[in-house]
Amino acid sequence: MLKIFRAKTVWNWAFLLLLSAAMAWGFAMVHLPAAVLLGCMVAGIVLTTRGAALRVPVSGFALGQGVLGCLMASSLKPEALTRVSADWPLFLVVTTSVIAASAVLGWVLMRSKVLPGTTAVWGLAPGAASAMVLMAESYGADVRLVAFMQYLRVALVTAVAALVARLWTTPATGLAAAAVPWLAVSSVPHVALTLAVAVVGAWLGRSLKLPGGAMVLPLLLASALQALGVMVIEQPPVVLALAYAVIGWSIGLRFTRAILRHALRALPQVLGCIVLLMTVGVLLATSLFWLAGIDPLTAYLATSPGGADSVAVIAATSAVDAGFVMAMQLARFFMVLVLGPQVSKFVATRAA
């Protein structure tokens, strides 16, 4: 009996790997952000809702979070921090406006009992999607529904932003697909130190039982070491792909048929809130254009409530001020990181 069970488990993992690769490839072909993560998450949902009992080890999930934290730290270059400190009133107004809008919409979903607990607040939080999912789990929200909302928002916002950028720029500067050098390494010591920070930071974060510590602690450590000139953050694409796969499976394999039905029932209301949040971003972009003289496409990408990583790709391949876009996106992410727990508690109390 044990041999049959083990054989079935091996076949389930093999099927999960094949389905994940196919889904990730399909998402990459249509230029969806975080295609590997989304593909693995969808594959996990397919298997677990059909009775497969698979789970990702907790240590593997924590290590994936550590790698993701180092990836986010690589965007925190000193010039981006300088940009934020120089124009802090502008950054403060824009970021708090987006966060306030997401909190209000989350309150509406909570009051209408579309989603349980603080799930709606975390699901609409305009930070990096992967980070918000991980943070939400630390504060008791339903990570499966948060993931559903976050990646739906990222997909919609990124698709619209890519379309706007493609229409705004000339074909020469438009978005183009490029082959990924999966095993590319510029410096072995840099890669080794980055992985060491990810592993040690994730282990410390779990040991200290910090909320989201397995991701936040590596992010802070890598950012500090990078700012001091001690390390250069470098992670081969294959390492990032493995981390995204582990996180995607960890989320997808927790779904049940009941949770999936709940998510589909809430789809119209969630879509409406996402569109309203995008509308707030457009209004803020219009204000930046008229009041601060920032070109329209730069302002739109900077205020877009999508994933910071996907917006960074669009900004880097478009004729915009990429430094301003990333500085605004990262400032908002850190405000959500710091204020997210307090905002969710405040909204939950008012909704109750």
Can you describe what's shown?
The protein is mainly α. The chain is built from 16 helices and no strands.
Key phrases:
mainly alpha, Na+/H+ antiporter like fold, 352 residues
Layout of secondary structure:
Layout: H1 2-29, H2 35-48, H3 58-73, H4 78-86, H5 88-111, H6 119-124, H7 129-138, H8 143-168, H9 188-207, H10 213-227, H11 237-252, H12 257-265, H13 267-292, H14 296-303, H15 308-316, H16 322-351
Helix pairs in contact: 1-2, 2-11, 3-9, 3-10, 3-11, 4-16, 5-13, 5-16, 7-8, 8-13, 8-15, 9-10, 13-14, 14-16, 15-16
Short account of what is shown:
Helix content is 76%, strand content 0%. The chain has 352 residues and is mainly α. It has one domain: Up-down Bundle (Na+/H+ antiporter like fold), CATH 1.20.1530.
Proportion in helices: over 70%
Strand content: under 5%
Oligomerization status of the protein chains: single chain
The rounded distance between the terminal residues' Cα atoms is: 50 Å
**What's the mean pLDDT score?**
81
CATH architecture: Up-down Bundle
Domains, number: 1
N-to-C series of helices and strands: HHHHHHHHHHHHHHHH
How many β-strand runs?
0
